[in-house]
Recover the amino acids of this structure.
């Protein structure tokens, strides 16, 4: 008998989503057997095809339905025959808001054997996480258009944050530092003096306090307020433009980065490229007190649909993140180690078509090394 049973909602979605989710589930099921827990799943067909067939993006009770599960596993949203924005806003963003998944956690980690475009950088140098605020800021849709179509057209889309939203996201980020490091095993980027002061890791606030003075003024004040509760965390600040610079030139300077929604969206695509591309970048939309949703961040890659050439590792890593959040840390770490073994010893490339294996063979390799 399994110790625990988790109910997972599966949203394979569009394009290559179903193929990568299948490999993710293959690995999760193997981990369940090995680590003695059970997974019960239910599939939902929400995505572009359902929208084209029914004219309906998402059932009205989708949020309530997903509340019945322990977690959600998402493939990809985006269909070539549907105008950009409809599915992204109608499914992905809607679920993030309805389930109050206020953090988007995106590890930027270079696995062994994976090629990075950053010359001379190794897995030791590229290993940090971005905590992206996930339900506020420009993404709230606050604003509007007037006098549309005339020379006087005015468009406003505001960056809106309140103290509550900022504070809960910052607390989550401070806690990530203690999740990653301990007193016995502190972050390697700390100096002797930091360690003597009792620091175990670092949190960088990424903002734009020199221009967006109101919004990032709020973030900055709240950051130092909350920091008082986490004396073991070294605080650091970077403007978003400089953050991009250092993510390329000195990624080893980062441990945990926390930022607002739009900056987080942008810098995590940059981060994904530095870790070997979208084929390997995973993320979690997290509600620490509710239902979280895990996804490969790469999108639906429609041109590769059904060919069995897409890289499933991002989905497999997203599955590992899901297990970690469900409390199966050991299983999550084992999957992560297997992914590292497969990138380091088997695969030729992270890019679709160039892996040296098919999508399902990569899943099999990860299972075999578990
Ligand atoms: C992401 C995506 C989404 C976002 C889009 C598809 C709405 O780019 O998850 O990063 O902007 O958050
Ligand atoms: Mn994005």
């Amino acid at each position: 008998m399994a110790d625990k049973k988790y109910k997972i909602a599966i949203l394979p979605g569009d394009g290559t989503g179903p193929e990568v989710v299948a490999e993710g589930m293959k690995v999760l099921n193997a981990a369940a057997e090995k680590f003695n827990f059970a997974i019960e799943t239910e599939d939902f067909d929400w995505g572009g095809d359902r929208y084209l067939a029914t004219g309906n993006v998402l059932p009205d009770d989708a949020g309530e339905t997903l509340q019945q599960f322990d977690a959600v596993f998402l493939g990809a949203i985006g269909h070539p025959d549907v105008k950009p924005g409809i599915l992204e806003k109608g499914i992905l963003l809607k679920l993030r808001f309805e389930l109050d998944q206020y953090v988007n956690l995106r590890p930027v980690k270079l696995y062994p054997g994976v090629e990075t475009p950053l010359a001379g950088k190794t897995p030791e140098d590229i290993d940090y996480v971005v905590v992206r605020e996930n339900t506020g800021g420009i993404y709230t849709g606050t604003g509007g258009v007037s006098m549309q179509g005339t020379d006087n057209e005015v468009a406003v889309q505001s960056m809106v944050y309140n103290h509550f939203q900022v504070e809960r996201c910052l607390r989550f980020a401070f806690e990530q530092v203690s999740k990653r490091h301990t007193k016995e095993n502190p972050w390697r980027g700390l100096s002797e003096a930091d360690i003597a002061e009792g620091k175990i890791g670092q949190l960088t606030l990424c903002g734009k306090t020199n221009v967006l003075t109101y919004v990032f003024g709020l973030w900055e004040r709240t950051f130092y307020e909350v920091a008082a509760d986490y004396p073991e965390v070294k605080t650091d600040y970077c403007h978003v433009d400089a953050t991009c610079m250092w993510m390329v030139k000195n990624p080893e300077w980062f441990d945990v980065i926390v930022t607002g929604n739009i900056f987080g969206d942008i810098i995590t695509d940059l981060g994904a490229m530095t870790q070997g591309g979208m084929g390997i970048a995973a993320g979690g939309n997290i509600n620490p007190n509710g239902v979280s949703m895990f996804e490969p961040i790469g999108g639906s890659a429609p041109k590769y649909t059904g060919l069995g050439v897409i890289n499933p590792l991002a989905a497999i890593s997203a599955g590992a993140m899901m297990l970690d959040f469900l409390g199966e840390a050991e299983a999550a770490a084992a999957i992560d180690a297997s992914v590292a073994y497969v990138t380091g010893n088997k695969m030729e490339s992270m890019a679709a078509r160039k892996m040296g294996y098919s999508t399902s063979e990569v899943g099999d390799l990860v299972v075999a090394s578990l």
Summary: Residues 88, 92-93, 265, 297 surround 3-isopropylmalic acid (ligand 1) (CB under 6 Å).
